């Protein structure tokens, strides 16, 4: 296993982002289209929040009715992304070690962290799935 490998080696750089003025309907479409569970929320290139699929499910009453789409639209129109997102998320830098990032994810209640470079510009996202894939790759080379 490689020691002190930077998180930039495993982070996702093909980013799906939301702006604070985007709608929750748009967020839901992005979650479904890209099969993801976390989307960083930005103002310009600066991360100001993190929206998870779980955040959307918490405000959705879709399971209580047969007309899911209508209820979701009504509920989504009642809230803004800024009201639902986790504000000022913990961020990591591309040169932080995978081990350090894994420790953060293991001790906090996060499943994804934005990766930011100079001037807080988002350059990636690292998720628990990225870490699991990395771990599996390590076992593959050593079997």
From TrEMBL:
<dbReference type="InterPro" id="IPR046342">
    <property type="entry name" value="CBS_dom_sf"/>
</dbReference>
<keyword id="KW-0129">CBS domain</keyword>
<dbReference type="InterPro" id="IPR051257">
    <property type="entry name" value="Diverse_CBS-Domain"/>
</dbReference>
<protein>
    <submittedName>
        <fullName>CBS domain-containing protein</fullName>
    </submittedName>
</protein>
<feature type="domain" description="CBS">
    <location>
        <begin position="11"/>
        <end position="68"/>
    </location>
</feature>
<dbReference type="Pfam" id="PF00571">
    <property type="entry name" value="CBS"/>
</dbReference>
<dbReference type="InterPro" id="IPR000644">
    <property type="entry name" value="CBS_dom"/>
</dbReference>
<feature type="domain" description="CBS">
    <location>
        <begin position="85"/>
        <end position="141"/>
    </location>
</feature>
